[in-house]
Amino acid sequence: MKLQFLGGAREVGRSAVLVDDALLLDFGLKTADPPQYPVGSLRSGPAADAEAVVVSHGHLDHAGAVPALLSGDRRPTVHWTPPTRELALTLARDTLKLHGGTPRCPFTEEDVRRLTEVSETHGYREPFEAAGHRVEFFDAGHIPGSAHVLVDDSEVRSTSSSRTGSDDTEVRSTSSSRTRSDSGDTRLLYTGDFHAGGRGQRLVPSSTARPEADVVVTESTYADVDHEPREAVEERFVESVRSTLWEGGTVVVPAFAIGRTQEMMLVCAANDIDCYVDGMGVEVTRRLRRHPEFLRDADAMSRAVSNARFVGGRDGQRKRIADQSTVIITTAGMLSGGPAMTYVPEIHANPVNKLCFSGYQVEGTPGREVLDTGAAEIGDHHLRVSATVEAYDFSAHADREGLLEFLDAYRDTPLLINHGDSCAWFADELEARGHDARAPELGDVVEV
Question: Are 331 and 278 contacting, i.e. CB atoms less than 8 angstroms apart?
Fold first, then answer.
């Protein structure tokens, strides 16, 4: 099996791995200025002749450039879980709305329409064929519909029982109806983004699947970080929010639309904290509720929706809400756009108010500047923030301990480390721990 790393190698963003010149695993973009796409021309590069695409989950850095593969007369089949399809199409339409017709958007409305025509959805543990390979999804515990992707260089010969929801039972074989003799020469496990270990999120449970593989391509986003226990993070957040509300202040919670907004809604509902929800997270929440089998607790999600008040998108309404003593969960998670551009200027000058970040702030973003310096360009304003600024780690990724626990199941399996800022360092550490590990560079071709 031949792997070519077109993106995500020793970086976070634009994930794309080409298998045997025919099967793409993810095709994302890196949110920079200008945006960065997998290496090579989108029109004639290594990915241009792919026969099929398998998308691990619906985040921009994994699915954001998929519609560009449908330009011209190209029609690769796109495989994903039902929630990933919904989320990827939502992201594509949002990208068109924001950047359509500019160099920042590499696809058109017609490309997005074509995407719906070539889409095929699959649940967890339902093998399917893609570009001559046998493929199977396993719950990755990252966001609803996120998947570990098992790729076998043999075509489908048998079908396991259909199970489309979360799989809370540890798996050490791919299917009861299939043995190693049924398979091809190589089984590749592409982890995608995943969460393992600990309590997991309220939105989705942690990954417990450990399918047998001959080689593993693993993410390493938080390989050098030990997350604070989720229970402790939530307790600190709730205590801080209640203190601010008791003092009559307003709490703005910047949150990523996919996954984090819903997680923060669940946290608020579980702790009897009323909240407003604004931005693309409103539409994402509606779409995810169409697939309750991919949620940890669909009833809890229903209660969270009942507890929240969705905002209709008018700045006048937003300014009135910002004057209330309340919690506002809003995009963008790093203050780079969205309704946060209205809320933050409204609440920034009062020390009683709070700005509570719910996720990592990338260098160069307004959110990171506020954290580091207390000031940033927010929309059309240069703001020096007097409101209290706090950061909470509600990460949906495995941390160092979770990665090591997951990879311990592959002690005798070669590991290829990607999707991280410290891939080479983590590969060296894994080598010291007895693993066979290395970190491919961007554009590398690896035979496995």
Answer: yes
Q: How far apart are CA 67 and CA 64, in angstroms?
A: 8
Q: Domain containing 205: what range? A: 2-224+397-447
Enter the tokens of residue 139: 């719950």
Q: How far apart are CA 347 and CA 359, in angstroms?
A: 20
Neighbour count for residue 136 (Cβ, 10 Å): 25
238 and 381, same domain (yes or no) = yes
Q: What is the DSSP string of 161-208?
A: PP--S---S-BSSS-TT--GGGS-S-EEEE--S---SSS--SSSPPP-
Residues 36 and 134 in one domain: yes
Rg of the chain over Cα atoms, rounded to whole angstroms, equals 21
Do 102 and 239 belong together in one domain? no
Q: Cis peptide leading into 34, omega within 30 of 0?
A: yes
pLDDT in tens, 134-161: 999 999 999 999 999 999 997 654 444 3
Q: Which CATH number characterizes residue 178's domain?
A: 3.60.15.10
* Residue 372 in tokens: 């580091």
pTM to 2 decimal places: 0.93
Same domain, 57 and 195: yes
33 Cβ contact partners less than 8 Å away, ≥ 6 residues apart? none
Cβ atoms of 99 and 75 closer than 8 Å = no
* C-beta separation of 392 from 233 below 8 A: yes
430: which 2 tokens? 């894994």
Q: Which of 391, 406, 424 is the last residue of a domain?
A: 391
Instruction: For residue 437, list its beta bridge partners.
Output: 415
Strand pairing partners for 357?
391
- Total structural domains in the chain? 2
Under 8 Å between Cβ of 361 and 391? yes
Alpha carbons 284 and 83: distance in angstroms, whole number: 10
Could you tell me which residues are beta bridge partners of residue 54? 25, 79
Please report, for residues 69, 118, 227, 337, 353, the alpha-carbon distance to residue 75 in angstroms, rounded to integers and kept in the order given: 8, 7, 42, 33, 51
Q: Closest Cα partner for 69 from 100, 114, 34? A: 114
State which amino acid sits at residue 401: E
Q: In this structure, what CATH number is given to the domain that contains residue 309?
A: 3.40.50.10890
- Write the pLDDT tens digit of every residue in 172-216: 433 333 444 456 789 999 999 999 987 889 999 999 999 999 999
Length of the chain: 448
Using an 8 Å Cβ cutoff, are 50 and 41 in contact? no
271 and 371 belong to one structural domain: yes
Are the beta carbons of 132 and 180 closer than 8 angstroms?
A: no
Q: Angle, nearest 10°, between helix axes 260-270 and 280-288?
A: 80
